[in-house]
Amino acid sequence: MPESPAVSVSPADLPATDLRTPGAEPTGVDRGTLRLALVVGGLVLAVLFGFGLGRLNPPPTTASGAVPATAAHTHPPGTGAHSHDGATATQAGDADAVGLSISSGGYTLAPSAVEFPVGRAGALRFQIRDERRRPVTRFAVVHEKPMHLIVVRRDLTGYQHLHPTMAADGTWSVPLTLPEAGVWRAYADFTAVADDGRQTAVTLGVDLAAPGGYAPRPLPGAATSTTVDGFTVGYEGTPKAGETLPVRFSIRSGGSPAALEPYLGAYGHLVALREGDLGYLHVHPGPQAEPGTVTFWMTPPGPGRYRMFLDFQVAGVVRTAEFTVAVG
Questions:
Q1: What pLDDT digit, counting tens, does each position of 277-311 carry?
Q2: Taking the model in full, what pTM does it have?
Q3: Rounded to whole angstroms, how far apart are CA atoms 272 and 266?
Q4: Which residues, in sequence order, are bridge partners of residue 66?
Q5: Is the dihedral of CA 139, 80, 132, 151 positive or negative?
Q6: N or C end of the chain, less CB within 10 A?
Q7: Any idea of the CA torsion for 84, 242, 155, 233, to the nearest 10 degrees?
């Protein structure tokens, strides 16, 4: 780092200290005062010089505005311990749910439209805005993407995991079809990068409407095993409110462990939503212990029934296994 420039201060630059007694001649500048002024002036210039270097050398970005994720960022309550592409970060065990608000942590989700015709392909467009209503354009890449968008109907059916793309003006867009009438919930899960390089993980939520007759389905009963496209998926572990505990999933095909492939930088991706208020829990995996398995460290923000959505990839195809779990 370049050295701070030398500071030169002459007595003419400083106010004279009058030490005269009545009738005496001026004695000039007090040496202690001069030394103090030199020190203070040097410190001020050093701070200003360092600030200028910081403005000239912001964190690296890509053409899309994404920056590498680091461990030096803050997280909303309830995220628990997790890693961002190898950089481990830990959040204290606060039991508040996330994704319940359109604004949080100084950021606001601003969609261009919230109503979509049933079953018709459209596009969801939105911006993330800061406290000054400016569009945010710098995001950290977390699990290989700068933005994860989860869409689900309020009865916890119709789950979709999407990855929008961002234009230069900070507008995100993604193709979206709402297959059934009702109120849907969209969650924007991202890590914003401030002007000073500080990274903040945020989950914001907004309701979308698909006009028509809405007949909500009851949540399926709790179960530890299900099937999807010929794969048998089960889990072990008992999540508890406010505690970070492991939940181990196994995926088998024809009685043998499935050949899981990395998806979004891991062998699985898990989202859990709480019945009722739709409190959001994005769970991050640990390393694969053995073939066909993936373990997640889960910190439910509170008691209730949750619907867990496990994304996994085999032979280039991503599938989703769904479970209901009761958390006490």
A1: 999 997 878 877 799 999 999 999 889 999 999 99
A2: 0.73
A3: 17
A4: 139
A5: positive
A6: N
A7: 60
